[in-house]
């Protein structure tokens, strides 16, 4: 559908002149940014998918898998908000650095963090207050709805943390530090999050709640590492590197 729109829309005629071999030049620098950017997102989503699959090994796997699948669905749905902030601040930071405005790039980071804090607080509060209602959108099984209601406050806190690391991720992407972001995601979720999730879920018998709490530990680790990198960004140096 997008291809048809680009081909037929008059709005795209000024920006796309059709296929050409010229479009395949300089692919290596593009791929050097694109592949780590994709890994930053995929590594996180894959980690949560692994945990949902692991819930099938818990006692009463039908209940645990159902509830964690609903939690993951809700998380992905609401994650679109901080993901939008991430894309926005990435574009803004890269544009400001390209224009030589390092102070404006730094301001964009501060603004998006404030927006992430505000949106995270509102949605966390809403999820906590609506925890006995939200589950009915997914299931009529009272056992599933009750279990999900217990998970929602934790899910709300998890979303709050996700909003912070998504915004910081956008800042790093705007500075061209995708490789650092991908490495942090790998360490935070696969060396900290998943092992902690399995420990809490299976060894400490916290079941699905433990699995999600373990992944939240991975998210917190990611926030701390991203924040450490962002705090030590030399904005003047980033402007010089761009130019």
UniProtKB/TrEMBL annotation:
<dbReference type="GO" id="GO:0015297">
    <property type="term" value="F:antiporter activity"/>
</dbReference>
<feature type="transmembrane region" description="Helical">
    <location>
        <begin position="107"/>
        <end position="127"/>
    </location>
</feature>
<dbReference type="GO" id="GO:0042910">
    <property type="term" value="F:xenobiotic transmembrane transporter activity"/>
</dbReference>
<comment type="similarity">
    <text>Belongs to the multi antimicrobial extrusion (MATE) (TC 2.A.66.1) family.</text>
</comment>
<feature type="transmembrane region" description="Helical">
    <location>
        <begin position="210"/>
        <end position="233"/>
    </location>
</feature>
<keyword id="KW-1133">Transmembrane helix</keyword>
<keyword id="KW-0472">Membrane</keyword>
<feature type="transmembrane region" description="Helical">
    <location>
        <begin position="147"/>
        <end position="168"/>
    </location>
</feature>
<protein>
    <recommendedName>
        <fullName>Protein DETOXIFICATION</fullName>
    </recommendedName>
</protein>
<keyword id="KW-0812">Transmembrane</keyword>
<feature type="transmembrane region" description="Helical">
    <location>
        <begin position="66"/>
        <end position="87"/>
    </location>
</feature>
<dbReference type="InterPro" id="IPR002528">
    <property type="entry name" value="MATE_fam"/>
</dbReference>
<dbReference type="GO" id="GO:0016020">
    <property type="term" value="C:membrane"/>
</dbReference>
<dbReference type="Pfam" id="PF01554">
    <property type="entry name" value="MatE"/>
</dbReference>
<feature type="transmembrane region" description="Helical">
    <location>
        <begin position="180"/>
        <end position="204"/>
    </location>
</feature>
<feature type="transmembrane region" description="Helical">
    <location>
        <begin position="30"/>
        <end position="54"/>
    </location>
</feature>
């Amino acid at each position: 559908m997008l291809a048809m729109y680009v081909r037929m829309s008059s709005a795209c005629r000024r920006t796309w002149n059709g296929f050409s071999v010229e479009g395949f030049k300089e692919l290596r620098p593009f791929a050097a940014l694109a592949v780590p950017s994709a890994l930053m997102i995929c590594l996180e989503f894959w980690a949560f998918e692994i945990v949902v699959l692991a819930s099938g090994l818990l006692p009463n796997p039908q209940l645990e898998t159902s509830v964690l699948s609903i939690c993951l669905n809700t998380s992905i749905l609401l994650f679109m908000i901080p993901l939008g902030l991430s894309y926005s601040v990435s574009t803004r930071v890269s544009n400001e650095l390209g224009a030589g405005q390092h102070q404006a790039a730094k301001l964009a980071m501060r603004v998006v963090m404030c927006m992430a804090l505000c949106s995270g607080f509102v949605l966390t509060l809403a999820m906590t207050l609506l925890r006995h209602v939200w589950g009915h959108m997914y299931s009529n099984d009272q056992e599933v709805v009750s279990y999900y209601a217990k998970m929602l406050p934790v899910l709300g806190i998890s979303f709050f943390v996700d909003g912070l690391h998504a915004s910081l991720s956008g800042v790093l992407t705007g500075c061209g530090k995708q490789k650092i972001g991908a490495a942090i995601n790998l360490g935070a979720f696969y060396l900290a999050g998943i092992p902690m999730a399995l420990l809490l879920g299976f060894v400490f018998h916290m079941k699905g709640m433990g699995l999600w709490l373990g992944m939240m530990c991975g998210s917190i680790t990611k926030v701390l590492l991203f924040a450490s990198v962002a705090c030590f960004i030399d904005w003047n140096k980033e402007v010089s590197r761009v130019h």
